[in-house]
Structure formats: C-alpha cells, structure tokens
Amino acid sequence: MSVIECNNVSIRYMTGDFKAIGLKEYVIRHLKGNYHVKEFWADKDVTFKLEKGDMLGIIGSNGAGKSTLLKAVTGIMIPTYGELHTRGNIAALLELASGFDGDMTVKENTYLRGALLGYTRQFLDEKYDEIIKFAELEEFQDYEFKQLSSGMKSRLAFSIACLVNPDIIILDEVLSVGDGAFRKKSGDKMKEILDSGVTGLLVSHSISQVRELCNKILWLDHGKQVAFTDEVELYCDAYEEFLMTKKLPKKRADIDKLAADYKIRLQKEEEEKDRKAAERAAKAQAKAAAAK
C-alpha cells in the first residue's frame, strides 16, 4: 500500500473574489460593473505514488508549484480537485525560522518551538543538550533569539526538527542552512533519518542534493507535471540543461536530447578548465625560468 498517493491534484488560487477584497469593495465593484475574479492554478493534474522508503525530489523553476504541493501533502492546503492520501505521521520542515520569539532566549525558544511541534517537556529536557550541541550554540544559550545571525537561527530550527521520528518527512529548502560544514552535517543527519525507512519529499534548488538523496523525481513547470520517474540521473541531467536553454521537454526524446546535450556541455567545460589550468602552469614555468 502506497504511503502517499496523489491523483490528478490541482490547486487554484482566486484573486479579487469576495474573501480577498471584503464586503465593501465587493459591493462597490458590483455597482460599478467592475467585479472580476481571476484564477491562478498553482498545480494542475499532478499524479504520483510513493512507497515506504522512497525519497521524492521535486524540481522546477520558481513558481512551478513545488511548495504549494508540499502544503497540500501536509494538509495545510486542500486541493481544489483531485485526491491526495497519506498514511502515517507527517513531519514538515517548511519554514525553519517560524515559531520563535525574538525576545526570548535560545533555551526558552528551544522549548517553545519543541512544544509547537508536539514534544513533551520531559522529552525536551532529555534532548535539550543534544539539540544545542548539534546546532553549535553552546555559548549562546542565554542570548535573545533576535541577537542570533540568520544562520544560527536556522541551525537551531533544524536541530529541533531533526528530533522527529515520522513516517513521512517533507523538506523545503532546509538542507542549505548554515555554513558549508553545517550543511554537510545536516545532510548526513537527514540521510540517517531517511535510512530508517521514512518516506520523504524534498524541494531543493541544489540538483546535487536531489541526485544524492532521491530515488524518484517529480518535475513541475508552472504548475504542470513534466515528469514523474525513477530515472533520477537522466532527468536531473535533462533538467540542468533545461535551466540553461529553457527548452521544456514535451516527449521522451526531448529528455534524452537534453540529457545528452548536458553531458556534452559538461565535457566541454571540463576541457576548458583543463586548458586554462595548463596555460597557467605554462606561464608559471616560463616565469620561473626567466627568473633564473
């Protein structure tokens, strides 16, 4: 039985309707004959299934409908039509820095955020030192949250969120928090969670992260589904070439061509790097010889 089933899910936003503009503006526009409602489909007919242990990478340019789809999976949004079924507990790491109070200390915020995520006081007492150590904030526990840098805030939020033991985990650009060293540590922690058999959805602009963590790909473009596949490397290659050419594939042959063109471009870039490195080495040798 699938852990997540998404069948023809479509999500519509309405602009200018009664709920958006209020009663007064609604009446005025009706009297003037200037009442119009505009529709915007953030996602349209999206379909996929995930089994236990699958990790789905959702790729697409800004405005593709990735984050909206994640909100539907978590239950924050209800699809306009289509069916979406999930089985098990869901942990969503969407907006890491939300749920904190700037005037409270790091320690107080740790308990506050943990409570919002459903953790008990006893559980947080047991895990507090582990959270602070992972976030590398041992020396900042008594600082007000607003005094922290954005990287520190994100590290704390990620550390608290990683305590979860869900059946489904949803990640929206959360593995890019902190500096390079912490990004590696957070990535390793996430692998540890995924290796436990959790089913996951990952939205990331880092295609290398998608290649490394995911066994399935969902490609969206302006709300429409381009592909759902387990051919991760092929479709990541095609997507990287699409980002350069903006040529959206319409059929499988287009995917193959994009992927092949990406390989060729990558090879040329490597050859150019080697050529420039050889030129620099030759100049350095010539300079050293002239100095003798």
TrEMBL record:
PROSITE patterns: ABC_TRANSPORTER_2. Residues 269-282 have a biased composition (Basic and acidic residues). InterPro entries: AAA+_ATPase (IPR003593), ABC_transporter-like_ATP-bd (IPR003439), ABC_transpr_TagH-like (IPR015860), Bact_Polysacc_Export_ATP-bd (IPR050683), P-loop_NTPase (IPR027417). One of its GO terms (molecular function) is ATP binding. Pfam families: ABC_tran. Residues 283-292 have a biased composition (Low complexity). Keywords: ATP-binding, Nucleotide-binding, Transport. Residues 269-292 are annotated as: Disordered. CDD domains: ABC_KpsT_Wzt. GO terms for cellular component: membrane. Belongs to the ABC transporter superfamily. This is ABC-2 type transport system ATP-binding protein. The lineage of its organism: Bacteria, Bacillati, Bacillota, Clostridia, Lachnospirales.
